[in-house]
Each structure stands twice: as C-alpha cells, then as structure tokens.
Amino acid sequence: MDARTASLLALFAEGRTRFTKVLDTITAADLPKKLAPSPNSAGFLIRHIGDVELLFAKNVFKLQDVQVHASTVAKGHDTGEWTDLDALRSYVAGSADTLRRAIEATGGDDWDSVIETKEFGRKTKAEALGRIVTHTAYHAGQLAMVVKYGS
Fold this sequence. Notes:
Distance between the termini: 46 Å
CATH class: Mainly Alpha
Oligomer: single chain
Shape: elongated
C-alpha cells in the first residue's frame, strides 16, 4: 500500500472513532429515541451511517462487489424499523469493512481522480473521503445528543 493510501486509511479509521465510541454505549432502549423536533431516531442514524458508507464504497470508490439497499436514503425519513441493535451493529461493522477495502484499493494518482455525484458535485477521491469521514462524524454527534437527551 502506498504512503498516501495508508495515511488516508488511518484518517478514516481515526475519524470513525467518533461514531464507534458512541455506538459502544448504546442500548436497545436507545434506538427509538428522538430529539424533538427531529424526526430521526437513534436507530435511523446508525443505519443511515452504514447506508452512506456503502454508497460511497460503491459509487465513489467503485468497489464492484458492493450490494447496497440504502433504505434510509431511499425512504428519506425514519419509519421506526431500525430497532435491532445487534443487526445495526453488524451492518455498520460491515459498512466500515467495505469502505476500508475501497480505500485500500485506491492508490497513487487515483486519489486525485475526479468523481462527480448529484449529491456533492465534482470532487477528487481524496476530497470525497473527507466528505464521508465528516458525514459519519456529523451524524455521530447527532446520535450522541439523541441518546443523551432524547426520549
């Protein structure tokens, strides 16, 4: 693995700890919690993080074997169905592993190649990695607030 890829992989791993540290403290009773007036539950936020990580692995980093049904993105709102803590933990462990594989498969000048999406326009793959790291951290902060103050 080239040095740039190794550095960016370390950035991803460290950035995701904002999420994993919160996830380690969550109980099944926390999953339906919401923080009014937000419509999104803790369970929804966890699933959403996994959905978007998989979408990035497939659509941004072009990992060919990724199968993703991004239900939180497709439905666009919380339906109350994300209440199985073990399933959610397994899902986001898998999404992290998949995104990690996608990062490891990117190297050299490929980090400077430009991708374009309707969600965020034109970015290099390195910039897109920054986007997914901050997306996860952003929702991890929301998750922490929902768990702490939600009902």
